[in-house]
TrEMBL record:
InterPro entries: DEAD/DEAH_box_helicase_dom, Helicase_ATP-bd, P-loop_NTPase. Belongs to the helicase family. RecQ subfamily. Keywords: DNA-binding, Isomerase, Nucleus. This is Helicase ATP-binding domain-containing protein. One of its GO terms (cellular component) is chromosome. It comes from the Eukaryota.
Length: 262
């Protein structure tokens, strides 16, 4: 069985996505998305501004589009629920809410849940966790929510659990960088959440900052990814539009203004 990551599958995926997006998706992102659709976990390292969010929206949009194909299509290696859902973990509330707006502009139902959105929902007598169960496509979470009783209840709710087909992690290098007990220990829970998902849930983890060698090896161990069992994309994160400018400071740093940086 060729799969969607074959040349024929990539061509089909591009055709299915084209009418749903305002611009063509990058070839390398489409390749990673199709690997994920074939059931292979994906770890992608690419520069800031390289389109990392495309892995997430491309995955969920294609799953929905694939429902229109004949069940006899030989490119499909797995079955997907009719109303798929994906859980995506973001490191900051601001990024969560920014991505929520971005996904909604693509006509994808998305909801950010963090302590701020939960507090606002309580004031208007809404239960965000219940709103996720039946119709939501993308659930965007802060790491702190992974250990909450509400999240545990949600992922064991039969209606929601049957829809889960993907787990996304943005800025995955922060699992270690920010996971120190003295800072945000909740990041350590990210490495365990995949095991709590239904069997067959595909992992898509992305970052712009992951050094080769010890740092990569440590992250793979945390995510329980062994070489040869996942698709690893490492692209250049060089930014030609960024320059290093060095200046000698001639003023103190104790005040509220910094004329040397003007």
């Amino acid at each position: 069985m060729a799969g969607l990551s074959s040349a024929e599958g990539l061509q089909l995926a591009r055709q299915l996505l084209r009418p749903q997006l305002p611009h063509p998706i990058h070839d390398y992102i489409l390749e990673g998305v199709c690997k994920a659709l074939d059931g292979t976990n994906v770890l992608a390292v690419l520069k800031t501004g390289g389109g990392k969010s495309g892995y997430f929206y491309g995955y969920i949009l294609l799953i929905t589009a694939l429902q229109t194909l004949s069940p006899r299509c030989t490119l499909l290696k797995r079955k997907f629920p009719a109303n798929p859902a994906m859980v995506i973990i973001f490191p900051t509330k601001g990024l969560e809410e920014e991505m929520e707006a971005k996904f909604r502009k693509l006509s994808i139902s998305a909801l950010a849940i963090n302590e701020d959105t939960l507090a606002e929902a309580r004031r208007s007598k809404r239960n965000l966790w219940k709103e996720c169960i039946k119709d939501l496509s993308l659930l965007l979470l802060s790491p702190e929510q992974l250990s909450s009783p509400s999240f545990d209840t949600l992922i064991h709710n039969p209606s929601f659990r049957s829809r889960i087909c993907g787990l996304g992690i943005d800025e995955v290098h922060l699992v270690h960088d920010w996971g120190d007990p003295s800072f945000r220990e909740a990041f350590r829970n990210i490495g365990l959440v995949h095991a709590r998902m239904p069997r067959g849930t595909t992992l898509i983890a992305v970052t712009a900052t992951l050094l080769a060698g010890r740092e990569t090896d440590s992250l793979l161990k945390t995510l329980n990814l062994t070489p040869g069992t996942f698709f690893f994309q490492r692209r250049s994160n060089r930014r030609n539009d960024v320059q290093d400018i060095y200046r000698v400071l001639r003023h103190g740093l104790s005040g509220w203004s910094f004329p040397d940086l003007d």
